[in-house]
Design brief:
The complex is a heterodimer. By secondary structure, chain A is an alpha/beta fold. Chain A is built from 11 helices and 25 strands. Chain A folds into 3 domains: 176 residues, 3-Layer(bba) Sandwich (FAD/NAD(P)-binding domain); 127 residues, FAD/NAD(P)-binding domain, CATH 3.50.50; 93 residues, Enolase-like, domain 1. Classes of the chains: A alpha/beta, B alpha+beta.
């Protein structure tokens, strides 16, 4: 009997590596509804922009599956899970027993109930196939509207602009990137995108996708009454966890599949990881869906360890983080970056508009709990250490961090010694 | 596995390890020419010396057992070699997204801005002893199993 993993994204890869760390022999079966071996999903924007070819989208070398004794069923959907019998059934009717099961089914793009959204000319940007479609499309059309000014929307817009399309972004919030970053960072990024010819409309939303009588997209109508002409629309306003399988099987779900520290769901032997899982957060004292890449890998990895071993390997908790560049402008954001007034946080910001750099540090209870960096990101990891390890921050140390001079020598001595200079054997 | 461990009690902050690292990772393998390569190819040492008052220490990649940089890597450029235990880096795959640079809580990943690629300690692949350890005049860097 095999380990069975449903999904073939980064959580799945993490799980394979986690399982193989403990158990080098029991077969692993990966079932994916996509038709390609695993790829670096965020690379689809690099591929669409023409920065890398298809030969570079692979997340692991070609021999990865064989070397790890993994069988992969592509183009295969799982229809049902029987948690009592410990079997899954594919849509083609094949029944497969599992030893342990991992649900790494990710999410699907959220499609709002907009007038005119049904029909051709409306796209998403979350899979390699979407990138192929948009690449073909960009040879045929001239104008595109992207709905959503989050990370996916912005990267889609940038990549389409690289293909020469006249590109506009429509974002409901007052600034782009305001959720994962903040308004100031969003403003700097927006400025860079606008310099490169991308139009940004904030504080409004698309109310209708306009079509000809034959059904071809000809534009969008905004809530403020304006119309934007375009031949295609990319919807990028968020991703919803793919919960159906788990829900139908009677596995506990909330916003995502509920899992404990060990990534185990309410069903014995069934785990969940990545964008579909709702797991304890490192900073907020609650469970959350944290749909970001590093989190998906490490959740998958810990799920894998726990699937293969009797000894629990709890996940340290989700920590939101995003590093992303726009036309060469690097940004990084980690942890809790937009605290409310009543959360008792201390926030320090430094904005250098001339050089387009910005630094924001968020402290709570003498610990660093988040940061935003734009333009200068070289010290990002040194700030991350303070957040990740929850290091105590004295006033002197705080001054150094605020001045933009983090260093491992600012760590409490004991932390430095145990992490950097463990005792010799 | 053997790793490079620093000793801040004896480090004199001379930066010779950085120069040795730079030279070992240069095309020329010559200390003077390597210094010039910095401007042309963006070459940087994989390690950095940090100072605080009288204390100095030279830090580079720890080759962690479960590395955050590998979790964060979107391109497959960073991976763990199960046989050697090293955290390996394939520059060709790197797209310069800087996710690893943000994710590494030790601040051990650096940027080559000229190339748009990261720089990370490879424990001097191909040498018996990493260049930084060999060059350290005061035994402040050691290469051993702990």
């Amino acid at each position: 009997m095999s380990y069975v993993i449903v999904g073939n994204g980064v959580a799945s890869v993490g799980a394979i590596e986690g399982i193989r760390k403990v158990d080098t022999t029991t077969p692993i079966l990966v079932i994916s509804e996509e038709d390609t071996p695993t790829y670096g999903r965020p690379l689809i924007s690099y591929f669409l922009a023409g920065k890398i070819g298809l030969e570079r989208v692979n997340l692991r070398p070609d021999e990865f599956y064989v070397k790890n004794n993994v069988e992969v069923k592509l183009n295969t959907r799982v229809a049902a899970i029987d948690k009592a019998a410990k079997t899954i059934t594919t849509e083609a009717g094949e029944q497969i027993e599992y030893k342990q099961l991992l649900l790494a089914t990710g999410g699907v793009p959220f499609m709002p109930p907009l007038k005119g959204i049904e029909g051709s000319g409306v796209y998403n940007f979350t899979t390699l196939n979407h990138a192929h479609m948009l690449l073909e499309l960009s040879k045929k059309i001239h104008r595109v509207v992207v709905i959503g000014g989050g990370l996916i929307g912005l990267k889609a817009a940038e990549a389409l602009r690289y293909n020469g399309l006249s590109t506009a972004i429509v974002e409901l919030g007052s600034r782009v990137l305001s959720a994962a970053f903040d308004d100031v960072a969003g403003g700097l990024v927006a400025q860079r995108l606008e310099e490169k010819g991308i139009a940004i409309r904030c504080g409004t939303t698309v109310e209708e996708i306009l079509r000809t009588e034959q059904g071809e997209v000809i534009g969008v109508r905004l809530a403020n009454g304006q119309k934007l002409a375009c031949e295609a629309v990319v919807v990028a306003i968020g991703v919803v966890p793919s919960l159906t399988l788990a829900k139908d099987a009677g596995i506990a779900v909330n916003r995502g599949i509920k899992v404990d520290d060990n990534m185990c769901s309410s069903a014995d032997g069934v785990y969940a990881a990545g964008d579909v899982a709702e797991a304890p957060d490192m900073i907020a004292q609650e469970a959350r869906v944290t749909p970001i890449w590093p989190n998906a890998f490490s959740q998958g990895y810990h799920a894998g360890l726990n699937m293969a071993s009797e000894d629990a390997s709890p996940h340290p908790g989700g920590l939101p983080m995003n590093a992303i560049s726009f036309y060469g402008l690097p940004t990084a954001s980690l942890g809790h970056v937009n605290p409310a007034e009543d959360e008792g946080c201390e926030v320090f910001t430094e904005l250098d508009e001339e050089n387009g750099t910005y630094r924001k540090l968020i402290f709570r209870d003498e610990k660093l709990i988040g940061y935003v960096l734009v333009g200068e990101v070289d010290f990002a990891g040194l700030y991350t250490g303070f957040v990740r390890f929850g290091l105590d921050i004295t006033p002197d140390v705080k001054d150094e961090l605020i001045a933009g001079q983090p260093s491992a020598l600012l760590w409490p001595e004991e932390e430095f010694d145990t992490k950097w200079t463990p005792a010799a054997e | 596995m053997r790793r490079v461990y620093p000793n801040k009690d004896v480090c004199i902050g001379c930066h010779i390890c950085e120069v040795a690292c730079l030279t070992a990772h240069s095309a020329s393998q010559d200390v003077v020419i390597a210094a010039n390569e910095k401007a042309v190819t963006g070459l940087q040492p994989c390690k950095a010396v940090y100072d605080k008052g009288q204390i100095s220490v030279a830090l580079s990649c720890r080759h962690c057992d479960s590395p955050s940089c590998v979790s964060a890597c979107i391109s497959g450029a960073l991976y763990k070699d199960q046989e050697t235990g090293r955290t390996c880096y394939n520059e060709e795959q790197c797209v310069g997204c800087w996710s690893c640079l943000m994710a590494c809580p030790y601040g051990a990943v650096r940027r080559n801005v000229t190339k748009g690629k990261i720089i990370k300690c490879d424990l001097c692949e191909g040498r018996d002893m990493p260049a930084c350890v060999e060059a350290c005049p005061n035994g402040a860097l050691v290469f051993e199993s702990r």
